[in-house]
């Protein structure tokens, strides 16, 4: 088995931990914010997990081992949610949410910008760049519309 598979599992576990933090902290704010955060993370995670599964297969895992290992990384999300709930201040959820949501949001923005912007700058076909920018704007518009309801 290649080391890349194990590195991917570690990164996926850390990613799932931050997702758990974000979901739990969002539900501490309100049920609406919690459901919106959960939906956004689910939409992000479905293609992400499929890609991680493919990475594990290329690293030498068989299908069953790759599936079990992918499932085990989900424990990171449970640990993150548990950590967010246990980190609640006796003074209320405001202090907990005051650091968890900015921390996870900043991490997500950093990862998105590190992955997306260099690809956009290296793209030779302007039509592909325009499509990616339009889809990015569509995603932002959907988030804004969902936050208004």
Descriptive report:
This protein has helices at residues 3-29, 31-58, 63-73, 75-86, 93-122, 126-148. The chain has 149 residues and is mainly alpha-helical. The chain has one domain (1-148). Helix 1 runs antiparallel to helix 2 and helix 1 (3-29) packs parallel to helix 4 (75-86). It holds the Pfam family Zip. The chain crosses the membrane at residues 69-87, 99-117, 129-148. GO terms for molecular function: zinc ion transmembrane transporter activity.
How are the elements arranged and paired?
Blueprint: H1 3-29, H2 31-58, H3 63-73, H4 75-86, H5 93-122, H6 126-148
Helix pairs in contact: 1-2, 1-3, 1-4, 1-5, 2-3
What's the short story on this structure?
With 149 residues, the chain is mainly alpha-helical.
Summarize this structure as a short list of keywords or feature phrases.
ZIP, 149 residues, mainly alpha, 6 helices, ion transport, membrane, single chain, flat, zinc ion transmembrane transporter activity
Tell the overall outline. Answer: flat
| Beta-strand share of residues | under 5%
Using the CA coordinates, give the radius of gyration. 17 Å
Measured between the Cα atoms of the first and last residue, the distance is 48 Å
Q: What is the N-to-C succession of helices and strands? A: HHHHHH
Task: Specify the number of helices.
Answer: 6
Number of E-type strands: 0
Number of domain units: 1
């Amino acid at each position: 088995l290649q080391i890349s598979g194990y590195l991917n599992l570690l990164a996926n576990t850390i990613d799932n931990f931050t997702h758990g933090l974000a979901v739990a902290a969002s539900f501490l704010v309100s049920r609406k914010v919690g459901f919106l955060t959960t939906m956004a993370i689910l939409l992000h995670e479905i293609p992400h997990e499929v890609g991680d599964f493919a990475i594990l297969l290329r690293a030498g895992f068989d299908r069953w081992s790759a599936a079990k290992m992918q499932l085990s990384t989900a424990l990171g999300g449970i640990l993150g949610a548990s950590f967010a709930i246990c980190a609640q201040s006796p003074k209320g959820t405001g202090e907990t949410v005051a650091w968890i949501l900015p921390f996870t949001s900043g991490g997500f923005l950093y990862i998105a910008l590190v992955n997306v912007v260099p690809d956009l700058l290296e793209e030779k076909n302007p039509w592909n760049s325009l499509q990616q920018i339009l889809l990015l704007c569509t995603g932002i518009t959907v988030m804004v519309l969902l936050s208004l309801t």
